[in-house]
């Protein structure tokens, strides 16, 4: 990419920053704007920033973004409070998510997409995690019961990390089956198994050690608040690199390190939230710009009815039916089940998995998988972005009309990433 492209991108970010306050009360979301901006300035548009997915800079950006998002999202979830009073997201994660992957796999096999079983499972796993930030008006609307807002917030914060082992194992199996040498599948499966076992071990050790040391340093006033942020970023990077060195998976290590760090450290980590609202937000929006500039044009010529149908089903039946099953017996209303089922936007994690995993697979089905992922995320950016504010307001009115009910039972609140939208009254 030439210097002119960098200037255009910088000016685009500046222009959006100047009007971000005026957009916060509209249905237009930053992911919409940056995906459209990327499409406009990319090779399919004006050609001012012709980005190539194979460029090392894009892969580095994707890796850094995924590492920091996995760590920061996990660190803001308090495991103690999650286990004690957040049964809805626990059910959605432990019951709903595996069912979503299973139903997504079955659907991909049955549709004429040309995918084998493991390839279908890989597609389903890539599209399983959600990005609540695409429908931020839902989790930031104070009129929506706290229990429901937090269910979506916690689910989104954890399911991208939970999806990583599934994505890696299925990708390893796919790569093994398409390897040139005999016995490749077994070798790749062994490789994947080591990645999902050594990664968590490194994450636990570094997350616990980092949290304990930072607590002690802060208590003795050895560490200033200004250096808390750099220390956390260094810890996330150390977890990733350290795991890769010993043969584990760095992304899993970063996620587990974030979980254990958030569990060990006392008090909530203001620097984690500040990062998510500043540097993390910038990386996220640049990723959506890359999505529009490089990923969307790449699949324009490959869109068939099968891919579109799977994308629609992924956002509806494939997500909503498993969520409904996972919430059976909790006492929440049918309206709440539909609300929680619909607001499972596909965004950042699916884009990053597409950039980092699918692009590396040398097989014919990789193009099909990437096409379906891009279509699904594009539809989600628009559909969930446009529906978030009005649906949240309608659901809030419904909840208020019911009065005290299961949905309004008190639960502890955990921090949300509020940079995409301000709380709605």
List the helices and strands and how they pair.
Layout: H1 3-23, H2 30-41, H3 56-75, H4 79-85, H5 87-110, H6 117-126, H7 136-139, H8 146-177, H9 184-219, H10 228-246, H11 250-264, H12 270-277, H13 279-299, H14 305-315, H15 317-326, H16 334-342, H17 348-356, H18 365-402
Helix pairs in contact: 1-2, 2-13, 3-11, 3-12, 3-13, 3-17, 5-6, 5-8, 5-15, 6-8, 6-18, 8-9, 8-11, 9-10, 9-11, 10-11, 12-13, 13-18, 14-15, 14-18, 15-16
Descriptive key words:
mainly alpha; 425 residues; disordered C terminus; Na+/H+ antiporter like fold
Describe it for me?
- The chain has 425 residues and is mainly alpha-helical.
- It has one domain: Na+/H+ antiporter like fold (Up-down Bundle).
- The chain contains 18 helices and no strands.
Radius of gyration: 21 Å
Q: Give the biggest sheet.
A: none
Estimate the helix proportion, in percent.
Answer: over 70%
Please report the distance between the alpha carbons of the first and last residues. Answer: 43 Å
- Give the domain tally: 1
Q: Please mark out the parts with pLDDT under 50 across 5 or more consecutive residues, or reply none.
A: 419-425
In total, the number of strands is: 0
CATH fold-level label: Na+/H+ antiporter like fold
Mean pLDDT: 85
**CATH architecture descriptor name:** Up-down Bundle
- Please tally the helical runs, counting DSSP H or I stretches of 4 or more residues: 18
The chain-level structural class is mainly alpha
Q: What is the H/E order?
A: HHHHHHHHHHHHHHHHHH
Which overall shape is indicated by the principal axes computed on the Cα atoms? globular
Determine and state the CATH class: Mainly Alpha
Strand content: under 5%
């Amino acid at each position: 990419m030439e210097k002119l492209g960098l200037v255009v991108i910088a000016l685009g970010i500046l222009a959006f920053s100047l009007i971000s306050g005026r957009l916060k009360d509209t249905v237009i979301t930053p992911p919409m704007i940056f995906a459209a901006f990327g499409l406009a300035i990319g090779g399919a548009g004006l050609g001012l920033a012709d980005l190539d997915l194979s460029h090392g800079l894009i892969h580095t950006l994707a890796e850094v973004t995924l590492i920091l998002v996995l760590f920061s999202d996990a660190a803001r979830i308090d495991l103690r409070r999650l286990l004690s009073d957040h049964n809805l997201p626990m059910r959605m994660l432990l019951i709903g998510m595996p069912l979503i992957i299973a139903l997504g796999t079955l659907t991909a096999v049955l549709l004429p997409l040309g995918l084998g079983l493991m390839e279908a499972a890989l597609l389903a796993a890539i599209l399983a995690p959600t990005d609540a930030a695409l429908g931020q008006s839902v989790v930031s609307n104070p009129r929506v019961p706290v229990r429901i807002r937090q269910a979506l917030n916690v689910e989104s914060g954890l399911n991208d990390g939970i999806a990583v082992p599934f994505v890696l194992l299925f990708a390893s199996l796919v790569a093994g089956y398409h390897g040139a040498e005999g016995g490749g599948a077994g070798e790749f499966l062994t490789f994947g198994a080591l990645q999902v076992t050594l990664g968590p071990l490194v994450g636990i050790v570094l997350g616990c050690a980092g949290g304990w040391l930072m607590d002690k340093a802060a208590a003795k006033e050895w560490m200033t608040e200004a250096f808390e942020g750099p220390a956390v970023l260094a810890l996330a990077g150390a977890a990733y690199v350290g795991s890769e060195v010993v043969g584990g998976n760095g992304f899993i290590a970063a996620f587990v390190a974030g979980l254990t760090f958030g569990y060990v450290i006392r008090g909530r980590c203001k620097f984690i939230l500040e990062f998510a609202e500043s540097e993390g937000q910038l990386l996220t929006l640049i990723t959506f710009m890359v999505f529009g500039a490089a990923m969307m044009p790449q699949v324009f010529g490959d869109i068939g009815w099968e891919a579109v149908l799977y994308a629609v089903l992924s956002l509806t039946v494939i997500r909503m039916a498993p969520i409904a099953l996972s919430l059976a017996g909790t006492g929440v209303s049918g309206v709440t089940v539909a609300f929680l089922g619909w607001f499972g936007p596909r965004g950042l994690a699916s884009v990053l998995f597409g950039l980092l995993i699918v692009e590396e697979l040398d097989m014919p089905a990789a193009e099909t998988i990437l096409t379906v992922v891009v279509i699904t995320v594009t539809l989600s950016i628009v559909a969930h972005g446009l529906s978030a504010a009005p649906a949240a307001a309608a659901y809030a009115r419904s909840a208020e009309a019911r009065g005290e009910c299961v949905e309004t039972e008190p639960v502890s609140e955990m921090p949300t990433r509020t940079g995409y939208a301000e709380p709605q009254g």
